[in-house]
């Protein structure tokens, strides 16, 4: 799941409610959840942590996405990142992607040992 952009000014309360509800549901169902920051997601999916929305859409199109929604492009990136983190693969094939995967796997291991 992509974490919120902390400098965003739109719909803060709705975002917080949806974000919290999703995290609670995952916790109640024992679904492992790793929060990737927006910069981590961009680095994984495009190779650049400062990638624009247009670059995220372009990366999604390279993966077979045909739409124009940056939210759906982000969702595709999140899904691919989650798959790689949990399966230990690097389907994007980039060193930058591998760095993000390893960072999130380390975070996940740390969370398990401190829980």
Fold and architecture overview:
This protein has a domain at 37-114. It has five helices and no strands. The chain has helices at residues 12-28, 38-46, 53-62, 70-87, 95-114. 64% of the residues lie in helices and 0% in strands. The radius of gyration is 14 Å and the shape is globular. With 115 residues, the protein is mainly α.
Quaternary organisation = single chain
**Unreliable stretches, pLDDT < 50, 5 or more residues?**
none
Shape descriptor reads globular
Intertermini distance: 20 Å
How many DSSP-defined strands? Answer: 0
Largest sheet: none
The total count of helices amounts to 5
Secondary structure category: mainly alpha
CA-based gyration radius: 14 Å
What is the averaged pLDDT score?
Answer: 90
**Element order: H for helix, E for strand:** HHHHH
What percent strand?
under 5%
Helix content: 55-70%
Which labels suit this protein?
single chain; mainly alpha; 115 residues; 64% helix
Helix-strand layout with pairing:
Blueprint: H1 12-28, H2 38-46, H3 53-62, H4 70-87, H5 95-114
Helix pairs in contact: 2-4, 2-5, 3-4, 4-5
Q: Briefly, what is this?
A:
The chain has 115 residues and is mainly alpha-helical. It is built from five helices and no strands. It has a domain at 37-114.
